[in-house]
Design brief:
The complex is a heterodimer of chains A (451) and B (146). With 451 residues, chain A is mainly α. The N and C termini of chain A lie far apart (49 Å). In chain B, 47% of the residues lie in helices and 17% in strands. The chains are: A mainly alpha (451), B alpha/beta (146).
């Protein structure tokens, strides 16, 4: 293990610590026992918090012209402060039930999933930056954030950098910039370790989130099916942001689904954290988050619309500083003009893009060779939910998936680049959130089978 | 009854998915490790430029004569490279990544340094305070005299 890989591991342990402290502060754990039960959530909460904090600090220091890069010291202080504040006066809580046989079977399924994560850490740690956008867009931004310690306008709003999608939000490169500062050097191979750790964090968070309403053996096997998906592991290794986005989206929709089922406020907060993280990772994250809140609103019932609206507002407020910065610097998407989506004339003229887009996206979704049977798994779970009259969750899952798919279609419809090239280069990646999100919802759809 | 049968059906699909994927996932990760472990740290550092493909030594040369705070303008002869990117765009992409914290600019008037790629910097209407050539190649780092 190189020193750089060790530095990434240390940074991520600190993110885990920060997340553990944030769980009580965010109302996700109300006692020490509940904290123990939901500790699986801690790492991914820490990742979103550190990424968002690093990105927003970089914006602030960029506006002030200061170089105060958020690195190992800032991360250490943040983790210690979170733990000290979060664990202070946290009651012990009532003793929970002992793990039953079903829980142990579920945990057993997580063992091979953990083996895949360890193998991914080992493999990614030596994999160079090869895939085009992985270094042209994401590693370049991470390196710039590391070098300048702030959002340096000559890069992040510079004419020479327009082709690196300056409109994309900065959570993912900010997270990698924290790793780079902890390393004290640029090491593109060691940077990949962050992505393997995100996979481990995703599996742990999915288990912790869905456990209260899902049947543990199914939850464990679904987590394993996700972790073992070759396409997921390949895309994760490219240093593209599509899989980190998919993880945040999936955890966000699962948290919303648990909230719909149980009504516990903490899960709505978790949805804000993860869907907010999705919005701060890629522009499509906002589409998937909008779809999730719209689907939840349709099924939550009138009494729960208010907290849901507050949660949606909080989610989209998280990306506000970035949107303000982008608008202030006159940056817009090089791919499309959003106003074209509201122009009937434009949509009519380009309507021939719709059919091929729908066809290609659908082909990607049903590609079981690369993804495994993740989408068929979600489809069977949906049928089971309908048959066992779990209509609210079935409606939520179907509506979120349909709205998200429609959102992607609109993006391809109004995109200005050649459709063939666009679909060829991106369709396998843009469906990642739909594949991972729908599979992650499957255990929720089935629920706990009655005896 | 429905829910138990349904849960069993979903478990079967999930197990089938994990079973069909696990071996390929393991092979994929093994391949990544074997390929990456065989490289030296320098080869890994050069991988982005090599993947385009462009000779990474030229970027090493540029980097060795640039300083933090430099703004560089790329002087690359027009030319094709592949089906989806031309030579100036490819050189610019690698430079943006590899030459940080020096910053790329699109107007030579904003630059402190000209980086030449198979193009004679003497043909530009500029005076230079220093120049560094890479061997016998037409690859120069030319600091603009102010």
């Amino acid at each position: 293990m190189t020193g750089h890989v060790a530095a990434v591991l240390v940074a991520n342990v600190l993110m885990l610590g920060a997340g553990a402290g944030l769980l009580p502060l965010l109302g996700l754990a109300r006692s020490r026992r509940e904290l123990g039960a939901r500790l699986g959530l801690a790492y991914m909460v820490g990742v979103v918090a550190v990424g968002a904090l690093s990105a927003n600090l970089a914006l602030l220091t960029g506006a002030l012209g200061l170089d105060l890069g958020f690195g190992a010291i800032g991360l250490f202080v943040f983790a210690v402060a979170s733990l000290a504040l979060g664990l202070r006066r946290l009651p012990a809580g009532a003793r929970g039930p002992r793990p039953d046989a079903a829980a142990l079977v579920g945990l057993l399924a997580l063992v091979p999933a953990a083996a895949i994560v360890v193998a991914a850490v080992r493999a990614y740690a030596v994999k160079p930056l090869l895939e085009y956008d992985g270094w042209v867009i994401w590693a370049t931004k991470a390196r710039a954030l590391d070098e300048f310690g702030r959002v340096y306008a000559p890069v992040f709003a510079g004419d020479a950098y327009r082709s690196i999608h300056l409109d994309y939000p900065l959570l993912f490169p900010s997270l990698e910039a924290v790793d780079l500062r902890t390393m004290g050097a640029f090491d593109g191979a060691a940077l990949h370790v962050q992505l393997a750790l995100l996979l481990g964090g995703f599996v742990a968070a999915l288990w912790a989130l869905a456990r209260p309403v899902a049947w543990p053996p199914l939850l464990g096997v679904v987590a394993l099916a996700l972790a073992a998906s070759p396409e997921l592991l390949y895309q994760l290794s490219t240093n593209y942001a599509d899989l980190p986005l998919a993880f945040f989206v999936a955890l966000g929709v699962v948290a919303l689904a648990v909230w719909l089922e149980r009504g516990e406020r903490g899960f709505l907060v978790a949805a804000v954290v993860f869907l907010g993280g999705a919005c701060l990772t890629k522009n499509e994250g906002t589409v998937f988050a909008l779809a999730a809140f719209a689907a939840a609103a349709a099924l939550a019932g009138r009494a729960r619309l208010r907290p849901l609206a507050v949660a949606a507002a909080a989610t989209f407020a998280l990306e506000l500083p970035w949107r303000v910065w982008v608008a202030a610097h006159g940056i817009h998407s090089e791919d499309f003009r959003l106003t074209n989506a509201l122009d009937p004339g434009y949509l009519r003229r380009t309507s021939d893009r719709l059919g091929p887009s729908a066809h290609d996206l659908w082909q990607q979704l049903r590609d079981t060779h690369h993804w495994g049977y993740l989408v068929p798994l979600a489809a069977v779970a949906l049928v089971v939910a309908l048959a066992s009259r779990r209509l609210a969750l079935a409606g939520f899952a179907a509506l979120w998936f349909s709205l998200s798919f429609a959102g992607l279609l609109v993006v391809y419809w109004i995109a200005q680049m050649s459709l063939d090239e666009n679909l060829f280069n991106t369709a396998n990646r843009t469906v990642a959130s739909l594949v991972v999100g729908s599979a992650a919802l499957a255990p929720m759809l089935v629920g706990r089978p009655s005896r | 009854m429905i829910s138990r049968l349904g849960a069993a059906a979903v478990v079967v699909v999930a197990v089938a998915s994990a079973h069909s994927s696990f071996g390929r996932a393991w092979d994929l990760l093994g391949g990544f490790h074997a390929g990456g472990a065989a490289l030296t740290p320098l080869q890994r550092e050069h991988a982005p430029a090599e993947s385009v493909p462009l000779p990474p030594d030229r970027f090493d040369h540029y980097r060795s004569w640039l300083s933090p705070g430099d703004r560089y303008w790329l002087d690359v002869a027009p030319g094709g490279l592949s089906s989806h990117v031309d030579l100036p765009a490819a050189v610019a992409a690698v430079a943006r990544f590899a030459l940080l914290p020096a910053v790329q600019v699109t107007d030579v008037a904003d630059a402190t340094v000209v980086l030449s790629w198979d193009h004679d910097p003497g043909l530009l209407p500029l005076r230079y305070s220093e120049q560094h050539r890479e061997g016998l190649q037409v690859v120069f780092v030319s600091r603009i005299a102010r």
